[in-house]
Amino acid sequence: MNPRQVEAFRAVMTCGTTARAAELIHTSQPAVSRLIGQLEATLRLRLFVRERARLHPTPEAKALFVETTRLYAGLDRLRERAAAMRGGQGVVLHVTAYPAMGYGLMPRMIARLRQEFPALTVSVDIVSSPEVRDRVMSGRSDIGFAAEEIDTHGLSTTVVQSSRAQLAVPVGHRLAGRRRVRIAELAGEPFIALAPVDVARRALTALMSKAGQELQVAIETPYSLNVATFVAEGAGIGLVNPLALASYQSPRIVLVNLTEEIRFNALALHPVGVVLPAQARRLVELMSQAR
């Protein structure tokens, strides 16, 4: 017994004649008769009695038709479920992001994602970059967004955003009115520094060393948003990722460009060999395109 025989049987039961059944399943009348004969031979049951131009189902055929109806109803539900999943219905997308993305671009891009997949539920956690990596590797998150300093072994990564670092200074500071500031000019200033493992912090330290200067670190914090908050309180100046400040506004700080280039790179990541859900792939696209 094969699916084509079952399809022919169902068509004959539905239409009453082999001619109409053939039209329904897009084949010839002799092909339908042959398929029914093969099915009867396989089952060793008589399924139809022919009277004039019509086929009358036997009790056995009627019983089998109940089962085939259930089978096709299940297939219809399977197709409907697949269509719903393509549209995001009944799907929960687990996203983990580090604060620069989670409090920056992420809310806007997830809002756009849900416009495209209105039935989609998105679960968002904002944690440190190492924790993003751990959650992605353990399968607790479908897609993660982290800073580039994490260990990427076993991960497939894509740079989704690359932003040039800026200097946050208090309003009224001697550097506040400048269009650009050279790295060497940071010497002697109380500095609100990112964590020592941060790639931008390491780049800044290297450039200061090259200029024969050292940072005067007053406060260390892992997040640009915290740097900006300390700067607003007059605790010093600091290097920040402008993406992290997308939703932060303070009249007490000014962002100034640096002459030397230091970049913050944000990665989308998932385990190597894991196929991302369509909604996660689309989120990565949206994050990459965001400006």
Which secondary structure elements does this structure contain, and how are they paired or packed?
Blueprint: H1 3-15, H2 18-24, H3 29-43, E1 48-51, E2 54-57, H4 59-86, E3 92-97, H5 99-102, H6 106-116, E4 121-126, H7 129-138, E5 143-147, E6 155-164, E7 166-170, E8 180-181, E9 190-193, H8 199-210, E10 216-220, H9 224-232, E11 237-240, E12 253-258, E13 263-271, H10 278-289
Parallel strand pairs: 3-4, 3-5, 8-12, 9-10, 9-11
Antiparallel strand pairs: 1-2, 5-13, 6-13, 7-11, 7-12
At the first level of CATH, the class of the largest domain is Alpha Beta
- Beta-strand proportion: 15-25%
Q: Main beta sheet: strand number and arrangement? A: 6 strands, mixed
Number of DSSP helical runs: 10
Mean pLDDT: 90
Segments where pLDDT lies below 50 for 5+ residues?
Answer: none
Helical residue percent band: 40-55%
The quaternary organization reads as single chain
Overview of the structural elements:
The protein is α/β, with parallel strands linked by helices. It has 3 domains: 3-86, Winged helix-like DNA-binding domain superfamily/Winged helix DNA-binding domain (Arc Repressor Mutant, subunit A, Orthogonal Bundle); 92-160 and 266-289, Periplasmic binding protein-like II (D-Maltodextrin-Binding Protein, domain 2), CATH 3.40.190; 166-261, 3-Layer(aba) Sandwich (D-Maltodextrin-Binding Protein, domain 2), CATH 3.40.190. The protein is 42% helix and 24% strand. Strands 8-12-7-11-9-10 form a 6-stranded mixed beta sheet, with helices on one face. A 5-stranded mixed beta sheet has the order 4-3-5-13-6, with helices on both faces. A two-stranded antiparallel ribbon has the order 1-2. α8 links the parallel β9 (190-193) and β10 (216-220). The longest helix has 28 residues, at 59-86. The two termini are 58 Å apart. The model has no long low-confidence stretch (mean pLDDT 90).
